[in-house]
Amino acid sequence: GQAPVGRAPSRVGMSPAPSSRERTRKLVWFVRHGEATHNVSHDSTTRDPGLTPAGYTQAVQLDASGALRLGAQLVAASPMRRTLETAQLAVPAQLGVPRIATHLLQEIGTSNADTGRPPAELRAEFGDAFDLSELEEMWYVKPAPWCKQRRIGLDDGQRALAARMADFVRWLGARAEERVIVVTHHGFLCHLLGIELANCEVAAMELTPTLEWAVQPTALVRHLPIVGIDRVPMRHKGSAPLRASRETIAKHYGAYVLAASERAVSPHSARGSWALVRRRLLVLQAAAIAGIVTLALARLERLLRK
């Protein structure tokens, strides 16, 4: 099923952004929501699905790990059920961190699974757990960025998606908080950061005063470029080439793609290995020539002695 198609919501709460001199560097922890029902069933016809029991466990374990207990001043979440549920569990209310829902963080697709619900329904389900003041009545209406059947990007949808990414960066840059947790979706993260995350995986990033993304220097996880066996970089519905942790590449793509991805960044990659082989052949060739010359000189010496 497809979501309603129409004009995208206006940019609620978008005030003029401060200059780069006025902005400070922000620490941002991006979280992909926990496992949702459509991630398991691969059925996108149910509108705004929630977490599975495994997804609840992932979010609770994320809180227990302490990975998000780093002095955050704000939780910004997509208004989809699975992201709101994840935010509630991974950053419990007792921590006292304010939570806000913004349509800018919603998933990029237009299937029922990627279609949210009006603010009144969210308020009835989540009460005052989130600030919903920035949501318009039909915040979830957006043009499709991708044609699944033809596997091509759709111009209007791609432009709208790029504009939403830019709007989110400006929105975040204009806020006063300097330590922010962002709970969002797989496709959104692929297009915003070029990073693919597993459910409840965290990417520690910095937003610079010039509104550019950088990996936090203290980040423990290294992201590799995802490269197919044919050496072609992986993309998601028109995104830039993707990167991911070794664990996520192995889980989502398998051992062969992980090996190809590791070769792409290794000094002993295919090209590097061939150069190493050539150097070794040259060494062996030189040694062989030296050996032949040595034998010839020895034979000549013996002949001269006769």
From TrEMBL:
The chain crosses the membrane at residues 281-300. This is Uncharacterized protein. It comes from Diacronema lutheri (Unicellular marine alga). The keyword Transmembrane applies. InterPro entries: His_Pase_superF_clade-1, His_PPase_superfam, PGM_Phosphatase. PANTHER family: BROAD-SPECIFICITY PHOSPHATASE YOR283W-RELATED, HISTIDINE PHOSPHATASE FAMILY PROTEIN-RELATED. SUPFAM superfamilies: Phosphoglycerate mutase-like. The keyword Transmembrane helix applies. Residues 1-22 are annotated as: Disordered. Pfam families: His_Phos_1 (PF00300). GO terms for cellular component: cytoplasm. Keywords: Membrane, Transmembrane, Transmembrane helix.
